[in-house]
Design goal:
alpha/beta, 239 residues, 46% helix, 5 strands
Length: 239
Amino acid sequence: MKDWLANEIDSPVYIGNDANAFVLGEYCFGAGKGYHSVFGITLGTGVGGGMVLNGQLQLGANQAAGEIGHTTINVFGPKCKCGNRGCLERYVGAEYIVARMKKRLKLASFSDQREFMGVQNDCKNISPKTIFLAAKRGDKLAKTIVEETGTYLGAGLANLISLLDPAIIIIGGGVSGFGKLLLDSVKESVAERIMNFPGRKIRIVLSKLRDDAAILGASQLAKFNEPGLATESLRPKSR
């Protein structure tokens, strides 16, 4: 695709995945601006990730770095589409959150079912958005699902922090729409799991650019594919 398009339009073409584009957008223009080490995670149908370190996008030996969604948080967990078991994505991906909500509703009392249905109207067309709306209005089951999602995500991010120690982690994608309830649960989960030695600083925030992050990041792919250019032209002030 890249070579064909470059030939057709007689111009350089750069291609990157959505999670890498997301972290570039936040690094250059959003919540990660001014930080040397930024990890971005996108929560949607799948769970993607990317990292910028010292002005360079980290792609790995096979350009497959950052796949935090397929790190294991439960070795005996359910099978993931990737073939592994207990992947983070299997607990915080949108379709799995919805499946967990539906299962919990089936086991819930009639009054709890009615409480959720008062917001949702039915128990079939459930989405992360309707779960969020129910939680926002105080529905107990929905709040539990959002908080559990934050706990699972926090476990995955704690592993990331222990391995890479980024200055800031930025959470984006559709599921990040759970907002503060999710973020508070994530932070609590992380705090319980990392080595919190004196002076340690780690920020975990929601995306500042939201839906615009990846498209803005894609506009910077040329800079980050030219050795040294990103480091020199986009070097942030130290944090």
